[in-house]
Amino acid sequence: MLISTESKNCNIILLTLCGLTTAYGTVIVLSNWRKNRQLRKKALKRRENEQLCMQQLLEQLANNYTKEEQAEILGLNAVELVSAAQQGKFSPLKILETYWTKAISCTKATNCITSVIKVAKAEAQELGACTDPSQFPLFGLPVSVKECYGIKDMDATIGLMSEINNLDLDDCVLVKVLKSLGAVPFVKTNLSQITFSLASGNPLFGDTSNPHRLEFTPGGSSSGEGALIGGGGSLLGFGTDTGGSIRFPSHLCGICGFKPTCNRLSLAGLHGPIPGHVNIATTIGPMARDVDTLVLAMRSILCPLMFELDPYIVPMPFDEKLFGCTKPLRIGYYVDDGFNKPVPAVQRAVMMAKKHLETSGHILVPYKIPNVERAWELFMSLCFADGGKRCKEILKNEDIDPVLVPLIQKLYFPKCLGKLGSFLVNLRNCWKSPRIAKDFSLLVEKERNISTVWNLEAQTFEYKAKFFSTWVQPEGNLDALIGPPSAMVAGPQKHFEDTTAILSYTALYVLLNCPAGCVPVTKVTQDDIDALKNYEGHFGDAWDKNTKDACMDSVGLPVGVQCITKPWKDELCLRVMLDLQKSVGLL
Ligand SMILES: CCCCCCCC/C=C\CCCCCCCC(=O)NCCO
């Protein structure tokens, strides 16, 4: 009797608990669903407003200038355009409106622009009234910036719906500096969601296409810059690079991109997913059709105003002596890092670059990257030292870009099942793939503790020292390296998910904090594709298969080469890039 009352009570308590839990769960699910739905509505409106604004602008500008006038402006490179504007040949307003028209027609094809920067018009008008244009080294030059650059009264969402209409109170340092130099920031460009993939888009603004093949990706995360500049809609743009986001889209879109040493250009006022990384050193950098424009940009931006606005930037002006150096350099070259085997077109591009640089008088010597796998372990462990907490946090209530889903799933995977997981990943890939299993176990590892992180940082310093010890050689020390910017060239978007296989060539120089830039050298030929048919990679695993499949239909697409120098030798890196481009010519 007593027992049965007790068990009855127990049942009631249990039932109530179950009921409460279910109710609570339902409320949470419903409220998340509602939040997400509200966000989606907001996103749709945000996109529609912007489309409308661009359409109106296009119509307003339609009859302002003749086709010939526009063609004349669009036919100039940045250096020519600035000097024409300084001489009063074209007003800054006319240049701006011509580029607005061109950029909007680009975005209709590739979806590369997220917003028009409306204050540009007032700025161009003001410049037009100035009596001494020669004091502005970038006079009247329209400049595009990646969406994550802070601009007063505009939002910078990094592809997150919850950040819509969260307006910046001020311009970021780079934009302030650009304006002080007479440049006219005129559009913001698309990026991959939270800038944490090499794909092209996000659920808020959609995907961006490659201007050379609309069904293919332009690469990321500075995808909009790649597509816009590659499509002729901007002469100079700025991206960000944490693993390859400037150099990779440059490579895929056939343009030049430069990642300087960290702390030479100011990051202040930019929006990013993970503030606080030390050895994963995000940088900003210029992207353009030619190296001359990159040089013009770096030379002008490294100015007293930037050093004043951001006291943590090394106050080191552009080193003309280093840039102007004409002595033959010893340059190491490699076509393969031994980890991700590049497709034949990419290897051929490096060999072409080697010949070209030899013709320009440099000494090229074979080079082998020391222990890329170690660099990879360090990069991943440091990049996700928090077990991906921050990534997961900012993606709450958001629609997650399909390209990011595999990464996020791994970050959520219970660590206790990690070992089993690696085993299953091995099985699923049919082939034995130690690197894919390791990738998995690096990502399912939860938050590392402080001693582990300090240890990783210390080991990174060791790796850095070891890396540069290989530049000391009996026949003479190396001044620079050339190599692939990626194992792949442009292909269908869906092949650009497995970040590790795509990123090893660029992320290495983020870990090492080297200046590095990409120069277009050739285009994929049918012979490259015929050779690709026998490609098996180094592991014959799913990543290798993906690399091959991604590039199978790439005839005619651009192929770049990466140039690298020691930290703080940014000007020397630009020198090598310029020599390379001079001998290759503009593609
Ligand atoms: C030898 C080193 C090999 C490293 C391979 C690392 C794989 C990491 C996998 C996944 C991590 C993906 C996160 C990095 C993407 C950054 C893209 C970027 O630059 N965003 C610019 C934002 O400013």
Automatic annotation (TrEMBL):
Residues annotated as domain Amidase: 95-574
This protein's record includes keyword Phosphoprotein: yes
Record GO terms (molecular function): amidase activity; fatty acid amide hydrolase activity
GO biological process: fatty acid catabolic process
Record keywords: Hydrolase, Lipid degradation, Lipid metabolism, Membrane, Phosphoprotein, Transmembrane, Transmembrane helix
Cross-referenced InterPro entries: Amidase_CS (IPR020556), Amidase_dom (IPR023631), AS_sf (IPR036928), Endocannabinoid_amidase (IPR052096)
Active site residues of this protein: 146, 221, 245
Enzyme class: hydrolase
SUPFAM superfamilies: Amidase signature (AS) enzymes
Catalytic reaction equation(s): (5Z,8Z,11Z,14Z)-eicosatetraenamide + H2O = (5Z,8Z,11Z,14Z)-eicosatetraenoate + NH4(+); (6Z)-octadecenamide + H2O = (6Z)-octadecenoate + NH4(+); N-docosanoyl-taurine + H2O = docosanoate + taurine; N-(9Z-octadecenoyl)-taurine + H2O = taurine + (9Z)-octadecenoate
Assigned EC number: 3.5.1.99
Transmembrane regions: 12-33
Keyword presence, Nucleus: no
Family: Belongs to the amidase family.
Entry protein name: Fatty-acid amide hydrolase 1
